[in-house]
Design brief:
Strand content of chain A: under 5%
Radius of gyration of chain A: 23 Å
Shape of chain A: flat
Order of helices and strands of chain A: EEHHHHHHHHHHH
Number of helices of chain A: 11
Oligomer: homodimer
Distance between the termini of chain A: 79 Å
Strand order of the largest sheet of chain A: 1-2
Number of strands of chain A: 2
Chain lengths: ~240, ~240
DNA sequence: ACCTGAACACCGTTCAAGT
DNA sequence: ACCTGAACACCGTTCAAGT
C-alpha cells in the first residue's frame, strides 16, 4: 500500500498544486496531470526518436513514457489515429502560420512546399501521416493556406477549386513519393547512393530507354527542388488560359 | 488420424493430379497447390469483399480462406506488405496495358488518371495501398506509363523528369485525397450528402470566405472530373515554356 | 473527473516438425 | 519442396473499479 510516494520518474502521486497533501484529504491526482497537449507532445517525442515511417508510436510506448495506464490516455484522446493527426498538425502549424505573410502569392505557394519538406526532414513520420486521412487538420490546413494564396492570385469559383485541388494533390503526392525515401539520417553521400540504386532498379525493370533517362535525372535532384519545380510547373498551368 | 479425406471446402488433402492416390505412396501435397498467384487472388477477393481502406486483409483471414497455415503462405510470399503490393499491381496492370495504344499522348495521360480512378471505384482499397510505398510495382508502372507518354510529347532530360514527377505526384495525391472519401457503396445522393457535410465542416472551421468558396465548389465536382481537370492544368503547364 | 490495470480480441512472423 | 500449427511478441480498445 503506497501513499503519496514520489516516483523518481516524471510523476508524483497523491500530490496536488505542488503541495504535498495528506492522502486522506485529497483524491489521487497526479501533479503533472495528463492533458491532450502533454500526450501529443509525448507522441511527437516518440515519433521523432525513431527514424521514418511512424510505426514507433504505440499505445504501450506512450504508457511507459507517460507512466500511466491505457484508460488515462483514452480519457483525453479518443483514438490513436486522432493522436497521430494531432501530432502532425502540431508540427505543421507553426511552419504554416509564417507563410501567409509572404509578399508574393507565388512565393507563398512555393513556401508551402518548402514548409512541408522541411517538416518531413525534421519529422520523417509526417510523410506517411499526411496521406493517411484527407480530413485531418493538417491536410485541411494545407488546403486552406493554398486556397488563400490562390485567391490573392485572383482566382475564384471553379478555377480556384481546380487549382487548389491540383496543388494540394500534388503536394500530398510528393510527400507520399519522397516521404518514404532516404531518411534524415542519411548524409549526402548515402542519399546519392540510395537514389543511384533506385535509378538502377528502375532501369533494370525493363530496358526501356525512357525510364532509364528519367531515372537518371531523378538521381541528380533532391526532393525539395523536385517539389519546387513541380509547383512552378503547376503555377505556369494556372497562369495559362484554359484552351477550351 | 485422417488420411486423404476430402474436405468440403476448397481443398483436397493427400491427393494429386486429380487422382486419388494412396497416402503411403505420395507425400502430403494439396491438389490445388498454393502459389503466389492463388494467394494474391485470395487477397484481392478479401479486400474487395470489404468496403474501403484495406484493413480487411489479414493473414488469419487469408488462412481461413485458403484453408492453410501461416507457414504455407509465408513459403510463397515474403511479407504481407509484398502481398498488398502484388494485389494492387495485379488489379492495375490490365488497365494500364490498354493505355499505351491511345492515339494522342495527352489523351493517354488523361487515361492514366481515368484508369486509376476506375480501379479505385471497383477496388477502394487501392487508394490507400498506392500511397503506402513509392517503390511498389504499381507505382513504378504509373511512373513508366506517364514517362513514355511524356517522351511522345517530345520531352527529354530534366524537363521530362520534372513533368513526370509532377504528374505522378499529382495522381498519387489525388488518390490519397479522394481514395478515403465516399465509398463505392454510396449512391449519387449519398455522395452529394457526404460532400455537402464536408463542405459545411470546412466552412465551419473558420469563417474564411475563401475556404467556403472552394468547399462549395468541391461539392459540385466528382473525383474523376476533378482529377482530369488537374491533369489538364498540368498539361498546360508543361506546354508553357519555362519563364526562367 | 481523472486514473488504474486487467481483459479482450486481435495482429505479423518464425520455426521445428511433418510428409 | 511444400505445408502444418504452435509459439512469440506484439497491437488498440474497453471497462469495472478505485480515489
Amino acid at each position: 500500500m503506497e501513499q503519496c510516494s514520489i516516483k523518481l520518474g516524471a510523476t508524483l502521486h497523491f500530490c496536488q498544486d505542488g503541495v504535498m497533501t495528506s492522502p486522506s484529504s485529497r483524491s489521487a491526482r497526479r501533479i503533472d496531470a495528463l492533458s491532450k497537449e502533454r500526450i501529443v507532445d509525448a507522441a511527437i517525442a516518440i515519433l521523432d526518436a525513431d527514424e521514418s515511417d511512424g510505426a514507433a508510436l504505440t499505445l504501450r510506448r506512450l504508457m511507459t513514457r507517460l507512466e500511466t495506464g491505457s484508460g488515462a490516455i483514452y480519457h483525453h484522446v479518443a483514438t490513436m489515429d486522432e493522436l497521430r493527426a494531432a501530432a502532425a498538425d502540431q508540427v505543421l502549424r507553426p511552419q504554416f502560420e509564417a507563410i501567409s505573410s509572404e509578399s508574393e502569392p507565388n512565393d507563398a505557394l512555393r513556401a508551402v512546399a518548402r514548409a512541408i519538406f522541411e517538416s518531413i526532414r525534421a519529422h520523417p513520420w509526417i510523410g506517411v501521416q499526411l496521406t493517411r486521412s484527407p480530413l485531418q487538420d493538417a491536410v485541411i490546413r494545407i488546403w486552406k493556406t493554398i486556397g488563400i494564396q490562390l485567391e490573392r492570385l485572383g482566382l475564384r469559383g471553379a478555377a480556384a477549386a481546380t487549382a487548389g485541388s491540383t496543388l494540394t494533390s500534388f503536394v500530398l503526392g510528393s510527400v507520399a513519393q519522397f516521404g518514404a525515401g532516404p531518411s534524415r539520417h542519411m548524409g549526402a553521400a548515402d542519399r546519392r547512393e540510395y537514389l543511384e540504386t533506385l535509378a538502377q532498379e528502375w532501369a533494370q525493370l525493363d530496358g526501356d530507354i525512357v525510364v532509364q533517362d528519367i531515372a537518371s535525372q531523378l538521381r541528380e535532384h533532391d526532393d525539395l527542388q523536385q517539389s519546387l519545380d513541380g509547383v512552378d510547373l503547376i503555377l505556369r498551368g494556372i497562369a495559362a488560359r484554359p484552351t477550351s
